[in-house]
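Subject: Re: docking follow-up (flavin mononucleotide)

Dear J.,

Thanks for your patience while I sorted out the input files. As discussed at Tuesday's group meeting, I've set up the holo structure prediction with flavin mononucleotide included as the bound ligand rather than trying to dock it afterwards. The sequence and the ligand SMILES I used are pasted below, so you can double-check that they match what you have on your end before we go further.
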Amino acid sequence: MKKFFAAMFAALTICLMSACGSAAEQNPAPAEKILVAYFSCNGHTKKAALEVAEILHADTFEIVPEKIYTPADLDYRTENCRANIEQKDSAARPAIAKKIDAAQYKTIVVAFPIWWGAEPRIIDTFVESFDSAGKTIVPVCTSGGSDIHAAAKNLRGLCKGANVLDGKRLGNINRDEVKAWLDSLKL
Ligand SMILES: Cc1cc2nc3c(=O)[nH]c(=O)nc-3n(C[C@H](O)[C@H](O)[C@H](O)COP(=O)(O)O)c2cc1C
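The structure tokens for the complex came back this morning:
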């Protein structure tokens, strides 16, 4: 009888151990959440950002200015239009209408149009609105032709303790190329 119970106990233990093993395989640790935050006045950056979010299965957040930019604000051929005044002032921090709890995201893709060779100042407002230490920041932009290098360098200066990647100019490459680039980052 003792032998019978010992055998039953051993069999039960093996069953439980294998059940635990398969449960762990079925429920791997949840992937870390990624946020795609974007600022876009005319839709180009929004389109690129939403494509990135779809590929990464990321949450999205639109950086909406408290004071919306009018066409006159964006008319960079007019020397003193709002966008030009802000870009000339490295301390300008246009206010954002709503906030997001960025603490829950380890990786944040920040998407913006290039203004005067760099990121719009409202992007500076955004990245300074949370503690970026330990996060990975991925800058992406759209532009008429300018690259993202100056913006990525500026963001590196603002995002203390973060790993700010080189980023990429989007809008001029197709979805497969965007996906291949995102895959290469192993986010
Ligand atoms: C104020 C302002 C400045 C700009 N400066 C540049 C620039 O320096 N280089 C460039 O290639 N494009 C520049 N552009 C063009 C935008 O980067 C481009 O049209 C972008 O795709 C717009 O994105 P959106 O539709 O998401 O707003 C500028 C646009 C504006 C409004």
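A couple of observations from a first look. Residues 40-46, 74, 76, 83, 113-117, 142-146 surround flavin mononucleotide (CB under 6 Å). Residues 31-185 form a domain with the Rossmann fold fold (CATH 3.40.50.360).

Let me know if you'd like me to rerun anything.

Best regards,
T.
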